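Please check this chain.
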Amino acid sequence: MYFIQPTRSIANLDQIIDALPNLHMIRIDDIHLYDPTIIAIADVQDYLEYQWCLPTVVMAQEDEGSALSQAWELGALAGWIWSSLPSDLEHSLLKIDAQYKRNQDSRDLPSAADLQKKLLPNPIDLQNYKVETLFQPSAYLSGDWYDYWKISDKEIMFYLADVSGHGVTSSLLTSWMAAFHGRSKTPRELIKKLNGMLVQENIEKHITMIAGTLNLETHALKWSSAGHYPPAIIFEPNQAPKILNTSSFPLGLTEDLEVEEFECFLTRHARFIICSDGALEPFDGGLSEQFAQLVHHLQNQSFQAPSHVADDIAILSLRRMN
């Protein structure tokens, strides 16, 4: 930490310096030369006059309450009285420093959210198909993720995943998945490879996902599920929705993950849709009632995510155009 030399006389200045032998003493004229993320201790009058950008703990005389108030309004981290400092000054400063760093992490969240969204796949032109998506985090960062990419001129691979929990750890796992495609050519291979890496790293999180491949010429869709709910749905014109239920375990629970692979064919104007469980949150009732309402709105293309959601929402739809 820094100690900015006061420009006025302070009666017990030597006592404070002796109590904090690790402080780095600097002059006001040299402030611009120092790290703007390290906390400084300074006299309140100097802080008010020069208004530097360093995070600062200000010191005041007993009759300078109004000066302390002004310093807090300008962003001072804390304010103490020169003649009445905390008994364990170093410990008190360490607590302030820790809280400051936590606050800085929180301020970085909007930038982190922008970066996460940039990792989402870019739109791609596909023969006979259109990819439609929705991505709405419940906070800054999301534990839901989707991705899709071409594995040949006539075939794409895709997945939608939901990491357990919320917050930074869950969002980091989505970024990890975004960076990992490997050389998998089938849904089973992709899920098995992701599961192996997750178990090996011993991260105390599990991931549910649906992964698949789509042949753009034959319209064959192969897919696998790893404990994901809600199930995938196929909507076809003038047909009842097809619910593609499966029974399986999420990623990250066991090395011996059994993964089944299923196949279906998409007819003209059919839509294959997968959602994270956050898509159920806007609806009332138990899981079955919520899922029925979700299916209704997806079928009628009337689903709208609320502006504020309690859980992350991700939806990936593959629509056959002709």
